[in-house]
Amino acid sequence: MSEKTLRNKKLLGKHHKSYANPVYLDEFQPQDYLIIDIRHPYDFAEAHIVGALNLTDLRSIATIAKNNADKKILLHCYSGHTASVYGSELVLAGLENIYYLDENIADFEDHGIRMMA
């Protein structure tokens, strides 16, 4: 990403700032995204959003995003912080289809987000 483009890019998000696009639980529709859960594999195995992939390596996530350029890639973690950082890194690497869930995982069930083991 060029320096000029970077200067024009704004940091977004209510809870955690990122160059990626924030998504909030009030508007979240899981079917609209390819969801990547970046939490520890043990926690993913205990409970995760239906259909989510579990990837923690930024290179692997970048590859998935590049190979699915026509889809919105949504990152989520425990609180939104790590997802916002990963999201910024991916946007700065030139990917434009990156979103992050700027919410706490503890609030998912209250908003009807279906989790599975």
Show the helix and strand layout.
Elements lengths: L2 H6 L12 E3 L10 E4 L3 H6 L1 E2 L3 E2 L3 H10 L5 E4 L4 H12 L5 E4 L13 E2 L1
Parallel strand pairs: 1-6, 2-4, 2-5, 5-6
Antiparallel strand pairs: 3-7
Structural account:
- The chain is α/β, with parallel strands linked by helices and 117 residues long.
- It has four helices and seven strands; from the N terminus they run H-E-E-H-E-E-H-E-H-E-E.
- The chain has a single domain, classed as 3-Layer(aba) Sandwich (Oxidized Rhodanese, domain 1), CATH 3.40.250.10.
- It has helices at 3-8, 41-46, 58-67, 81-92; strands spanning 21-23, 34-37, 48-49, 53-54, 73-76, 98-101, 115-116.
- The protein has a five-stranded parallel sheet with strand order 1-6-5-2-4, with helices on one face.
- Helix 4 (81-92) links the parallel strand 5 (73-76) and strand 6 (98-101).
- The longest helix is centred in the C-terminal third of the chain and has 12 residues, at 81-92.
